[in-house]
Amino acid sequence: MRVLTFLHSFEAGGVERIALRLVRAWRGAGIEAPLFMGRSDGPMRNELARALEFHQPRQPPFSTRRFETLWMMITLPAVIRRLQPDLLFCAGNSYTVVALAMKLLLGRRCPPIVAKISNDLERRDMPMPIRTLYRLWVRLHARFIDHFVGMEHAMEREISSAIHIPSRCISIIADPAIDQRQLETLRAGATGRRRQENEGLQFVAVGRLVPQKNFGLMLRAFAVAATTRDCLTIYGDGPERERLAALALQLGIEDRVRFKGHVPDPARHLTGFDIFLLSSNYEGVPAVIIEALGAGLPIIATDCSSAMSELTQHGRLATLVPVGNLYDLAAAIAAARRMDQCEDASYSQAKRFTIEQACGDYITCFKHVTYNSISENNCHPQAEVRS
């Protein structure tokens, strides 16, 4: 079986990070897993793709960064014709438009497509007119995606309802956010961590500095509720970095907020902190929450996806607050000193989301989809994979 994965670049992103690790795991399991990269730049090439063979189209004399999706639509069909994969893996929501293009351009010569739903499909953050158009776009997915993968059980109903497909067209495979080696390292670092009563709290957040993550809300809540001894460290980079640094200065917390930029494997830095923060407007199953669980950290997060409650065991492993609500996020930060985390329960939950487990589940899913690809329907009846 030959499974082709297509990505824009090696720029830092959760979808791309997990896809690269899956490709490596599938190859290790004996699956032919070619990788198409629209361009070869980005920090994850050295971090995750060393000695990882990939296919890349001939590059023009100008950067394709600004129109990378169109560039992929233009160049990917030739690679599909040449490699003749049995299946295409669409690594996240942002790539489904490419999947649509492949179905239109290749017709019956397009292999079946399995798409992972990596982000919230409800998108309550959107203004109603745009949200209505988005819903129509999501519903269209049923016509060109052969099978969908959700990353937590709670996502099955969301996917089925939003795309208008039966549950037989959906597999639930726990988000492969961490590997067993990383998990054991995080657990070892968490063991014996104790905070002195008179110390300030060390808050930490990880993510791209983009509007989706709403770090501005986090900074405002921190300014309102944290004590002068508390500090916030943010790992990640992106186009909003300058604006967020200016906001921290405006709020008078610039000496207590540290922007660390992009770092390889940010999970390994988590064990030195006390509280993990997430302020996103929308997510799928946030890999950073799984990493925080692995590190045994108490978590304060926005209820930014249908999976968040189940992921955090319905409030047992995190304090969840409404999306975009400054008052509730600030109140949770103010109460953070009283938070505690059951490290055993946190570790057990994180253990569900290992690359080792997901690798086999994906292969089982791919075999079912390939076997049933002769069906006339886009969504083929098949056994479901459950983590």
Automatic annotation (TrEMBL):
Q: EC no.?
A: 2.4.-.-
Which ranges carry the Glycosyltransferase subfamily 4-like N-terminal domain? Answer: 13-173
The protein's matches in Gene3D superfamilies, at most eight in alphabetical order, are given as:
Glycogen Phosphorylase B
Task: Output the Gene Ontology terms for molecular function.
Answer: glycosyltransferase activity
Q: Tell me which UniProt keywords the record has, alphabetically.
A: Glycosyltransferase, Transferase
- The protein here is known as Glycosyltransferase
The record lists the organism as Sphingobium rhizovicinum
